[in-house]
Amino acid sequence: MEPSLSVENHILKNLGKKTYRNINTYNPLNITHPPSLFYLDPRSLSPEGDGKESSINMIVPQDCSGFNLGSFMVRRSAWTDRLLDIWWDPVLYEQKHMEWEHKEQDSLEHLYTHQPWVRPHVAFIPQRRMNSFPPGACGDGTNRGIHYQEKDRDFLVNMAGCEWGRDCWGEMYHYRQLSNRLNRNPWEKFKDEVSDTWKKIFEEKKKDKQKDKQKDTKKNT
User: Fold this and answer.
1) In this predicted model, what pLDDT tens digit does every residue of 165-190 receive, in sequence order?
2) Count of CB atoms within 10 A of residue 131's CB?
3) Phi and psi angles of residue 33, each rounded to the nearest 5 degrees, phi first
4) Coil, strand or helix at 65
5) 59 contacts 73 by C-beta, under 8 angstroms
6) Record keywords: Cell cycle included (predicted)?
7) Is 49 exposed, middle or buried (CB count within 10 Å of its CB: 0-12, 13-18, 19+)?
8) Is the pLDDT of residue 221 over 70?
9) How many CB atoms lie within 10 A of CB 159?
10) What's the CA gap between 90 and 100, in Å, rounded?
């Protein structure tokens, strides 16, 4: 939606201020956090991990049903290699495909819930900063924490679930046109304003003519 924004400035710069480590800030899955196992180190027992921006290896938004992997980010690190190896391991993933409706999303949620080493390196980001939804996904479009807000010029829109009873192409075309309109240069805006002004003038003239015709027909009858 906003091609002029860079990922570096919009998300990665001042990452600690744009993300939250404590999932209780927004916890639609009601995951118990932090874990209370007696053998864990202080970092794993802390709701914020070590609190350092440098320890963030994964950035995930959440929607109304939990982790949303429509847009997420990982840092190249030994932790990430380990996570990806386990995340996609057939023993974990393929054996659960009948139980896990959302597949890789459910798999990651399972790891986050049951593997304490995962949590200190995961940071959550408000959904609209990198993964806004259109109306029809997670409700009718009235949730300001989830749904696209034109006035705020959200970064992008994810047509999540559009294949289930919605018009995917229609939604993509609508937001493409909206993005083009919002990102016009000054000359394009001026031309459109002139065009809109003339359209209004012609429409008003048409209405006046129609009113005059109606008056004439009434007089003749």
Assistant:
1) 999 999 999 999 999 999 988 888 88
2) 24
3) -145, 135
4) coil
5) yes
6) no
7) buried
8) no
9) 20
10) 14
